[in-house]
Each structure stands twice: as C-alpha cells, then as structure tokens.
Amino acid sequence: MTSSNRVPVRRLAGAFLLLAALAAPAAAQTPDSVQAAATAPATAPAALSLEEALNLAGAASEQVGIARAGVQRARGDQQRARSELFPQLTGTASYVRTLASQFGGFADDEEVDPVEPPAPASCSRFTANPALPIGERVDSLESSVGCLSAFNPFAAFEDLPFGRTNQYSFGLQASQTLFAGGRVRGQTRIAGAGRRRAELELTSQQAQLVLDVTQAYYDAALSDRLLGIAEATLSQAERTLQNTTLARRVGNAPEFDQLRAQVARDNQRPVVIQRRAQRDIAYLRLKQLLNLPLERPLALTTSLGDTVGVQAAPQPVSVPAKLVAEGAADTAVAARAGVRQAEAGLEASEGQLAVARSQLYPQLTLSSSYARLAYPEDGIPGWNDFVNDWTVTVGIRWPLFTGGRIAGERTAARAGVEEARLRLQQTRELAALDARNAAAQLEAADALWAASTGTVEQATRAYDIAEVRYREGISTQTELSDSRILLQQALANRAQAARDLQVARVRIALLRDLPLGGASQSFAQQAAASAAAAAAAAGTLQSAPPAPQQGGASPTLNANLGGAR
User: Fold this and answer.
1) pLDDT digits (tens, 9 = 90+) for 216-251
2) Buried b vs exposed e over 296-310: b needs ≥16 C-beta within 10 Å?
3) Cα separations (Å) of 211 from 65, 250, 401?
4) CA dist 75 to 196, 340, 342, Å?
5) How many angstroms separate the CA atoms of 551 and 514, rounded?
6) CA nearest to 362, candidates 395, 402, 392, 393
7) Phi, psi dihedral angles at 101 (to 5 degrees)
8) Angle of helix 405-452 relative to helix 523-538, nearest 10 degrees?
9) Does residue 169 fall inside a structural domain?
10) I need a labelling partner for 557 at 20 to 30 A (CA). Which of 35, 45, 124, 147 fits?
11) Structural domain contains residue 437
12) By residue range, what is the domain housing residue 485?
C-alpha cells in the first residue's frame, strides 16, 4: 500500500476523533446506547448524543455507500488495466461428435467397389527393353500396372481428423504483449488516477457526512432552544397580563395597559407555534440523515453550551490537537480534496493522450498454442491416442490507413488535457476562495460568541428589575415590554452564536476533505441572515423570510422574535 492510499485512512481516523470530541462528556457513547437509540420504543424519547448520531449516520449514509462502491469499481478497473503487463494464459478443452461429414462420400465410393484385385506378390519397376521377347515385355508391363492399382497414394491421409466421428482436444494458449507504443502504460495511468479520485471522493463524502450530521444536530438543538425561549417569553407575557389584570381590578392600571398586555400575550402564541413547527422540521431532517423512523421522538443530550452563568462561560468544542497535527485542519490549496481530484483528472487526461498516440506505433505480440488431440473411432481415447500440436507465433500489427480516426482521437485527447489543466487552475482558485470564506466564517462566529458573553445575564437582570418596577407601579408597560424583547433577542443571539461557532469549527477542521463549496456560505449571506434576525428580534419585522441557506446559519432564526411587543 502506498503512502497516498494511507492518507484517507488517517483522515478517517481523525474524523472519528473529531466526532468523539464533539460529544458531551456526560453522554459517553457505548454500543448499548447506540442500539438503544435505534430500538427504543416509539412512545419514549430516545436519548441521542452527537457522537451516537455520527456513528448511526456512518452506517446509514447512501452517499458514503455509493462512494465506497465507486472505490471498489476503480480498484477493479486498475487491476484490469495492469493485467496487460503480464502474460495471458488460457486453458481449453473440447469434445466434438460428428453426426454427418462432407468427407463421408469418399468412404462410400470406396465401399461401392465389390471386388478389389489382390496385390501382386512382388512388384518391380517396368523398364522397356527392346531386346526382350515381346511376351516378357508384356508380362513386365502388366505386373507394374497391377502394383500401381494396388498402391493407394492417399493411404497416409486416413489418420487425418477430417470427418472423424470423435474428436478430443486439450490445449493451452499463452500470449504476451511485447510492445504496444505506450498504450498499456497510458491505460494504467488512467486507472490509477481513477482510483485516487474515487478514494478522495469517499473521503470527501465521509467528511461531508460529519459536517451535515453535526449541522443538523445543532440545528435541532437550536430549534429546541429557540422554542424554549419563545415559550419562556409567552410565560412572561402571561405573567404580565395577570399582574395587569389584577392591577386593573383594584384600580391601579388603566384598561389600555390591560389590553396592551393581552395583545402582547396573543402575539407571542403564533411565535411559539412557528418555533414548534421549525423544531419538528429540524428533527425530521436529523432523523432522515440517520435513517431513523420519522415518528420516533428524540431527546438530544449534547447541548449548545449557551445556558451558563457569566463566571463559567463555556467554550465551544475545540478540534483535537492530533487531528490538526495530521493536517485535517489544513487550509492550504494544494491539500484540498477537490484540487487533488482535479490533479488526478489531469493525469487521466494525459493517459488518454498517451493511448491515442500509441496507435501510431506497431504493436508486437508473442503467442504460443499447445494442444493434445485425439480422434478415436469409439469410446474414450487412451493416452497413446493423443498427438501433439504446438505453435509459437510472433505477430505485428500496424495501422497503415484509418481514414483520419487516429488523428481525430489525438486531437480530442489533446483538448481533454488542456481542459483538465484549466479545470485544475479553476479549482485551485475556488479552493483559495473557499478557505478564506471558511476562515472568515469562523472568525465572525468567534466574534459573535465573544460579543454575546454576559449579554444574557445583563438582559435577564434588566428584565427582572423592569418587572419589579412595573409591579410596584414605578414604570410603564412599555419599559417592561422593551426589556422582554431585549432579553428574548439576547437569548436567541447567544444560542445562534453557539450553534454557528460549533459548526464553523467543525467545518474548518474538515476543510481539507470537504467538497469545494458544498457546505459553505458566503459571509454576505450570513450577515444578511443575522441582520434579518436582529431586526425581527427588535420587532421591526413581523415575519422575516428565510435567507438563502447553503449550510451556514440556521434558518430557524429567520422568524418573528418580536411578537411580544
């Protein structure tokens, strides 16, 4: 096994290290827990950690299975291409039973003659001798003619296989290509490049699966968190309505405040309904990736890490040091899987050109055929009935005129090489842009996470104070409503920042093996989504449409967060 063939194995091992680091320490995965997640009763939520989800997805992914089958096919093509470098040996065995033969007529003609003259006792060559008497010369002539009529010049052909009833043949045929003008070498290069591309595709699909499952898992966790925030906001609005109603009854609050509190409570209910629907959709997506029954409830045990105090602010999961040391977090252009696939494609195109050029040269082959033949009259032949037939052939094949076919194939092959070279250059440029995009996403997510630190605690404290002030009658309901909206926005931003940072770190760790642009989102799209979410949280948007998504920010935040106003 070459070093290039060991690289996907190391990357796969590194990916599994990443999976283990993403899971919460309390949710250690065991084979029993994975089995329980797949066989738990439909009525009870099945506990599922991120590590368990990744293990389940690895066996359930159709894309990974297709890529693995592609690797097997590429290995078979490579083995078939290399086979022409070695001698080809074929064994043959046959039995022929002749029912009617064109040579049977000759045997019938011989049987028609009822009387066959006996052969002379002795034969001598006739020599004309005028000195002998006429009688002796006539006797000598008749004796010579009798010898000629008794002698069968074709008697040696009676043992030939023509028209024989039974024919047995056992043989070996061997051939070896001595010179093919570079055709075999070109085919070997094509097959080798195809195998490398297939192995890189398998690694890319495995990395993409890790990212997709991680993203889907955190999307579901984020939807849970946003639903909890919406329900908590609804509970706060309910409590405000109760306090306002009580104050109205004792004459401390006007009817306007009661109506406003009721409208705020009623406006929050559609937000809860929408959040619940988005949560269900996120869970369905996760179940679809894991091939779990869609009706089975799940309980996610790996949290986003945003629900902590100021003094113990958690850091999102980090990439294992060993994974980074092995180069899985490498953002170099030459290390990207897409670039290496394009390089393999260029090599395959050059192999096609070598195959096309090989047709200009003669092809020299050496072949040999050895056979044991037998033609018994009846039954199975004995060993002495077989005769040998052994030939050795050296053949040369050289196309002299093909009507322009070879020239056309060479032109097409040269165009393929040029196209592959340009695609490689294009892929390198896209890889450089994609790496900068992923780094910018990680930097922005890290900054948003840092900016959200402490904001939730401050907003919570501000709302508690506003609620006490309103209950004591020293502030207005407008102040309380504004505090509630700011708290809701701070909680949502904190949860969104945790989710984005988790996904951005996973993406940058797997960037080398990820497909180009397959799961990246432009920074402008993320900024637009964040702006829409902030506007919705502030109450300026009643229902913000989802921004275009390519796997970056979660669409669950693009909804009305300001219904409490």
Assistant:
1) 999 999 999 899 989 988 988 898 888 888 888 888
2) bebebbbbbbbeeee
3) 17, 58, 56
4) 9, 18, 19
5) 13
6) 395
7) -130, 150
8) 30
9) no
10) 45
11) yes
12) 3-60+183-351+427-557
Whether residue 561 has pLDDT greater than 70: no
CATH code for the domain of 550? 1.20.1600.10
DSSP string, 114-137: ---PPPPS--------TTS-HHHH
pTM: 0.70
Tell me which residue has tokens 């702006």.
Answer: 531
CA distance 95 to 100: 16
74 in any annotated domain: no
- CA–CA distances in Å: residue 454 to residues 142, 314, 444, 486, 565: 137, 12, 18, 13, 24
User: Alpha-carbon distance 387 to 373, whole Å?
Assistant: 5
* b/e code 147-167 from CB counts within 10 Å (16+ = b): beeeeeeeeeeeeeeeebebb
The tokens for 357 are 């050029």
Backbone angles phi, psi at 24, to 5 degrees: -70, 150
Q: How far apart are CA 25 and CA 257, in angstroms?
A: 48
CB atoms within 10 A of CB 87: 11
Overall number of domains in the chain: 1
Is the predicted pLDDT of residue 12 greater than 50, yes or no? no
For residue 250, tell me if it sits in a domain.
Answer: yes
Closest by alpha carbon to 189, among 1, 349, 319, 425? 349
Strands laid side by side in the 88-97 sheet: 88-97, 166-179, 363-374, 387-397
SS3 per residue for 253-300: CCHHHHHHHHHHHHHHHHHHHHHHHHHHHHHHHHHHHHCCCCCCCEEE
CA 83/CA 91 separation, integer angstroms: 17
Question: Confidence class of residue 278 from pLDDT cuts 50, 70 and 90?
Answer: very high
Contact 259/514 with Cβ under 8 angstroms?
Answer: no
Helices (H), ranges, 83-182: 104-112, 134-150
Q: Give mean pLDDT, residues 191-219.
A: 92
Tell me the sheet residues that pair with 11. Answer: none
- What is the rounded distance in angstroms from the CA atom of residue 261 to the CA atom of residue 277? 25
Q: What does the alpha-carbon distance between residue 396 and residue 362 come to, in Å, rounded to a whole number?
A: 6
Q: What is the pLDDT of residues 383-416, one digit of tens each?
A: 888 889 999 999 999 998 989 999 999 999 999 9
Instruction: Specify the amino acid at residue 5.
Output: N
Q: Which residue's entry shows tokens 């508690």?
A: 464
Residue 128 pLDDT exceeds 90: no
At residue 47, the 3 state secondary structure works out as strand
- Contact in structure between 424 and 353 (CB atoms under 8 Å): no
CA atoms in the 13 A half-sphere facing the CB of 262? 9
Tokens of 257: 């405040």
Give me the mean pLDDT over the 118-124 stretch. Answer: 59
Q: Are 168 and 373 in contact (CB under 8 A)?
A: yes
In degrees and rounded to multiples of 5, residue 74 shows phi and psi of -65, -35
CA atoms of 218 and 24, how far apart (whole Å): 13
Dihedral angle computed from the Cα positions of residues 216, 221, 226 and 230, in that order, rounded to the nearest 10 degrees: 130
- At residue 510's C-alpha, the angle toward residues 505 and 513, to 5°, is 160
